[in-house]
Specification:
The complex is a heterotrimer of chains A (665), B (160) and C (190). With 665 residues, chain A is α+β, with helices and mostly antiparallel strands. Chain A has helices at residues 2-30, 33-36, 39-62, 69-74, 81-86, 92-113, 119-143, 167-196, 201-232, 243-268, 272-295, 302-306, 308-332, 347-377, 387-407, 418-424, 426-442, 448-471, 479-488, 491-515, 623-641, 652-657, and strands spanning 518-524, 529-532, 535-546, 551-561, 564-569, 572-576, 581-585, 587-590, 594-603, 613-621. In chain A, the strands form 2 sheets. In chain A, strands 2, 3, 4, 5, 6 and 7 form a 6-stranded antiparallel beta sheet that branches. Chain A has a 4-stranded antiparallel beta sheet with strand order 1-10-9-8. In chain A, a hairpin with a 2-residue loop joins strand 2 (529-532) and strand 3. The longest helix of chain A is centred in the N-terminal third of the chain and has 32 residues, at 201-232. Chain A is globular and about 80 Å long. The termini of chain A are far apart. Chain B has 160 residues and is mainly α. In chain B, helix 2 packs across helix 3 (62-76). The longest helix of chain B is centred in the last third of the chain and has 31 residues, at 107-137. The N and C termini of chain B lie far apart (59 Å). The longest helix of chain C is centred in the N-terminal third of the chain and has 29 residues, at 6-34. In chain C, strands 5-4-3-6-7 form a 5-stranded mixed beta sheet. In chain C, strands 1-2 form a two-stranded antiparallel sheet. Classes of the chains: A alpha+beta (665), B mainly alpha (160), C alpha/beta (190).
């Protein structure tokens, strides 16, 4: 009964979405307030209905209702509760429902907190949101119904793939979707603005917090996925340039570009058409990612071969949403009047350079990811595009970007003095060269690219700190004055500094682990010791353990440095009998400067468990900095989001003092 | 395949067999560290043909293992890296290379990003120069020397 | 930058704003191509098509009367079929009767490579299902498989009288495939 309630709620949600997508739009066009006012309650009702559907599915998972096909396929009664819950989105149908839930969540957020938006714009934004959710609810209902029943019900389920039974991966999809789908807000604002035919500073101010929120989630989602790959796949890698990863990177790059260009719209009323285009494309790439992953276009044929309608359906949705928006863009955008003028050397120009480089980076990932398909479509045979390609094309784009990032925040709006800025950053410049040279000497002439990246990361970090210090006149004014200034500095500014510094720290980690990772693969007998990067690993042996739904071979290593105890590492190799699937559980000890990473393989002779085992040890320098850097970036986003100027529910009194059109005056 | 399969599984309900048994095994490895390092480098650029976007260095597929051993044997008989790659492409085509060769069919792949950057850069330059011009024509009067002096003083005060 | 009249400039800008739509339309078009259900994204094209068959020499499967196989056996006669199989491969079992039928009713010469298989398993498998192969090479190490550029079993090749590879199919043969692709190729080479 409960699954049917969920199914019915989803059907009702579709009806509500249709109403929300039509009435307020017509109302906005004809100036009928009553029709426009339908949007908010409809958005809330839509959320409620989709939530009912989602909870109904979750209930089926929690009680292991094996009359529901989706539960049979992806769950098992012996699975821990956490993974019963995360199993809801560990499959195509359930994750699509989560996608829709998050979409309606954002719609409801506009309805609740968008009180400061002009009535017409709000109605149109919610209308566009409803178009998107109409498409995706229909997709769920017609091609991917999670509530389908199975008769007769089997005794138990097929279990969730054990690789996915992991806390990191349990929360990876929700975060990623909050990011992907969050970009739909920017898209809806862009389309609504195109329909209105007006983009002004206020528009920039409204669209930025939503983009920022989505960006924080997307950053978190990507970092979490990367972290999961790092500790779960058991070979110390954290990024593989796999199509599935690439499609999450593209919206991130464009979303980052959008954040920066929206600043120009807000502050200077320039780059309007460009910002609109970025907003359309950022969400377009999210949809493209959804399409690629779910159509099996690049990877497995499975999902697709089983139901060819799915791929076509999402492609049509993609075509309607992005094609429609771009058509509207082609017609309306040329009329958008830019206001602010600026010199070729200015903050605006710097942000444009940022956009150019981020846009090119996204284009590079796009071309690399889809080129095999393109070539095949043109009859040019099959090629593979792997990590070596991206290392050669994508990475060099980031070097000038980081260089520009250091100086950008010191440039003045309208017209800036580049020589002066570089003069103020003399210290950072010297330190960067020192760090780069130091890395080169210490690594014995290690990869030049890595030393360069180290120098650039140092440059970015110091330049960011110098900029912040200058803002509050640190060391130039009395400390009390500096503190007073620090208190007055907008939170958005701290957010920017944090995000930039976070990236610098992450670059240290990315570079070090790519260039200076050390690895040992050996057969070891219990009692043997292996030394890697100054740490001695003594292999103590392997014991057999029994987990709730798996059995495990757990090895034990005692790690010492110069005779002093450092850590005990216990990597595991598990077997999940229901799916007959093995997993590796790497053991990681972090010193803050490096990760000591151990993996246990197979015994040399399966009969002789006391004999030699295949052991993999990795020394991963600065990897913790990568995760720390990502966290600092997210923190920067959140701090910026808490700035009252950007606060999602900007208080109504501010609206009075700053009416929508004020900035145009 | 491991990663692709895992992520694909995560996002769409497909099932495929894979296991995280891990890549290069100790018994495959060469005693000569220099040759072994070369073998590892080559392996990282060779696609496991039955996997999805995974190099033979990190794949646990049987054929990946065969190829790893074959590469090591060829290196031991004195093949250059080039010769090893040529041997593989003669049998499996360009598909086996994770770094596609530069040939007319891949010009767009290799030079596309640079073209985007250069065209975008040119567009940006034109845009910036055009944006500046109306400012000069807009008839905003130049600052007088006294005004300049006052401005400099104000800016100086602000910075302190 | 040449001095453009405001009018042409306006048109130029208009055109510029249509570019994203055009690029998107093109992308959509080839994404649609990618959805062709006939297309297998995992299929690997053979680099050996229309090239001479690779050099190899394989011993007979121990315990089997059928002789071993080398490059020289493929040449000289009419077109021949080479099938790579293994007893552990499930689809091989499915295509086996089709191969036997080809040999019996069409008089096709069929050679086999037993890929990474235990000799006794292969012997038992062939005893159970019958042995349509004129010669079978035992590829214990899988090295001959690499020479042939195979990505899995089963795979089937057609080699013409000059020893040139004319056709290749990765995966099990089906009746439809035999009728529509394999037989026409053989017919043409006769």
């Amino acid at each position: 009964m409960i699954p049917e309630i969920g199914h019915f709620a989803l059907i009702l949600a579709l009806v509500v979405a249709l109403i929300q997508g039509s009435l307020p739009m017509l109302g906005a066009a004809r100036g009928k307030r009553g029709w426009m006012r339908v949007a908010e309650p409809a958005a809330l009702l839509q959320l409620l209905l989709v939530l009912i559907a989602f909870l109904a599915l979750m209930q089926a998972y929690i009680v292991s209702d094996f009359t529901v096909w989706n539960v049979v396929e992806n769950s098992h009664s012996a699975k821990p509760l956490l993974y019963k819950i995360s199993g809801v989105w560990g499959n195509h149908e359930g994750s699509m429902l989560l996608w829709v839930l998050i979409l309606t969540l954002y719609g409801a957020a506009v309805a609740l907190f968008g009180g400061n938006l002009p009535e017409r714009l709000r109605a149109r934004v919610l209308g566009v949101q409803a178009w998107i959710s109409t498409g995706f609810i229909a997709f769920c209902l017609f091609t991917s119904n999670p509530f389908a029943r199975v008769t007769p019900p089997p005794l138990d389920g097929n279990d969730l793939n054990p690789l996915l039974q992991d806390p990191g991966l349990a929360f990876h999809p929700p975060l990623l979707y909050l990011g992907y789908v969050g970009l739909s807000m920017a898209f809806s604002f862009a389309v609504a603005a195109l329909i209105e035919g007006r983009v002004d500073a206020a528009w920039g101010r409204w669209v930025r917090p939503w983009t920022l929120l989505a960006w924080c989630f997307l950053t978190g989602g990507i970092a979490l996925g990367s972290w999961w790959a790092y500790y779960e796949l058991g070979w110390g890698g954290w990024w593989f340039w796999d199509p599935v990863e690439n499609v999450s990177l593209m919206p991130w790059l464009l979303g980052t570009a959008l954040l920066h260009s929206a600043v120009v719209v807000e502050k200077r009323e320039a780059l309007k058409a460009w910002t609109i285009l970025l907003a359309i494309l950022a969400f377009g790439f999210s949809l493209l990612g959804t399409f690629i992953v779910r159509s099996g276009l690049l990877s497995s044929v499975h999902a697709f071969a089983s139901d060819p309608t799915r791929g076509v359906f999402i492609l049509i949705l993609l075509g309607l949403a992005v094609g429609g928006a771009l058509l509207l863009f082609a017609v309306r955008a040329p009329k958008l009047q830019a206001q602010g003028l600026f010199a070729p050397i200015s903050r605006e120009a710097g942000l444009l350079l940022n956009n150019l480089l981020l846009g090119t980076a996204a284009a590079t990932v796009f071309v690399g990811t889809l080129y095999p398909l393109l070539l095949e479509a043109m009859g040019g045979g099959k090629v593979s595009v792997g990590p070596p390609y991206f290392n050669l094309t994508f990475v060099p784009l980031f070097l000038p970007l980081v260089l520009a990032m250091g100086a950008g925040p010191l440039l003045n709006w309208k017209r800036a003095d580049l020589a002066g800025v570089l003069g103020r950053l003399k210290l950072a410049l010297i330190a960067a060269i020192a760090v780069g040279l130091g890395a080169w000497i210490l690594s014995d002439g290690g990869p030049v690219m890595a030393c360069l990246a180290f120098g650039l990361a140092a440059w970015l970090l110091l330049a960011t700190l110098i900029e912040l210090a200058e803002r509050i006149s640190l060391f130039r004014a009395p400390l009390t004055e500096s503190l007073r200034r620090a208190g007055r500095l907008p939170r958005a500014h701290y957010g920017m500094s944090l995000a930039h510094a976070g990236l610098a720290i992450a670059i240290f980690g990315i570079t070090a682990s790519s260039a200076w990772k050390q690895e040992e693969v050996r057969l070891m007998r219990p009692g043997e010791t292996l030394t890697l990067a100054g740490y001695a690993y003594r292999f103590e042996g392997v014991e057999r353990l029994q987990g709730p739904n798996y059995r495990s071979d757990m090895a034990s290593f005692t790690v010492t440095r110069d005779g002093d105890y450092v850590a005990t590492l216990t990597p595991e190799k598990r077997l999940y009998p229901v799916q007959n699937a093995p997993t590796t559980e790497a053991a990681i000890h972090t010193t803050g400067l490096a990760d000591l990473y151990a993996v246990i393989g197979d015994p040399q002779d399966p009969q002789d468990r006391a004999g030699a085992w295949t052991v993999r040890l990795y020394h991963e320098p600065l990897v913790p900095w990568m995760w720390a850097g990502a966290l600092i970036m997210i923190l920067g986003g959140l701090v910026s989001l808490s700035d009252r100027r950007l606060r999602v529910g900007m208080p109504a009194r501010r609206r009075k003092s700053l009416p929508a059109g004020a900035a145009e005056a | 395949m491991r990663l692709a399969a895992a992520l694909a599984l995560l996002l769409l309900a497909g099932l495929s067999a894979w296991g995280p048994a891990l890549a290069v095994e100790p018994e495959e490895m060469l005693d000569d560290p220099e040759l072994e390092a070369r073998a590892r480098d080559i392996s990282k650029d060779v696609r496991c043909v039955v996997c999805q976007n995974e190099s033979i260095d990190s794949s646990n597929a049987g054929i990946a293992r065969d190829l790893r051993i074959l590469i090591r044997e060829r290196l031991q008989t004195g093949d250059s890296d080039r010769e090893v790659f040529d041997f593989l492409t003669a049998r499996y085509g360009d598909f086996v290379l994770l770094k596609p060769p530069v040939r007319p069919a891949t010009y767009l792949l290799w030079f596309g990003p640079a073209a985007v950057l250069i065209l975008g850069g040119l567009g940006l330059a034109v845009f910036l120069l055009r944006r500046r011009r109306p400012a000069a024509q807009s008839g905003v009067p130049e600052l007088t020397p006294e005004e300049r002096g006052r401005l400099a003083k104000l800016l100086k005060e602000r910075r302190e | 930058m040449s001095e453009a009249t405001p009018r042409t400039m306006k048109i130029l800008i208009r055109v510029l704003f249509i570019v994203p739509l055009l690029i998107f339309a093109g992308t959509l078009g080839y994404l649609y191509f990618g959805l062709d259900p006939q297309r297998d994204p995992r299929a690997v094209p053979s680099a050996l098509l229309d090239k001479p068959a690779p050099d190899f020499e394989l011993p007979a499967v121990p315990g089997l009367q059928t002789p071993g196989l080398s490059r020289g056996d493929l040449e000289g006669g009419g077109p021949v079929l080479l099938n790579v199989f293994a007893s552990w491969c499930v689809p091989c079992r499915a295509e086996h009767p089709l191969l036997s039928e080809l040999v019996e009713s069409r008089g096709v010469t069929l050679y086999g490579i037993d890929y990474k298989d235990k000799a006794e398993d292969a012997v038992a498998w062939l005893e159970e299902l019958g042995n349509p192969y004129a010669a079978i090479g035992h590829d214990d190490s899988g090295r001959a498989g690499i020479e042939w550029g195979i990505t899995g079993v089963p795979e089937t090749f057609v080699i013409d009288g000059d020893g040139t590879i004319r056709y290749r199919h990765a995966g099990p043969l089906t009746r439809q495939l035999i009728e529509e692709e394999l037989l026409p190729v053989l017919e043409q080479l006769r």
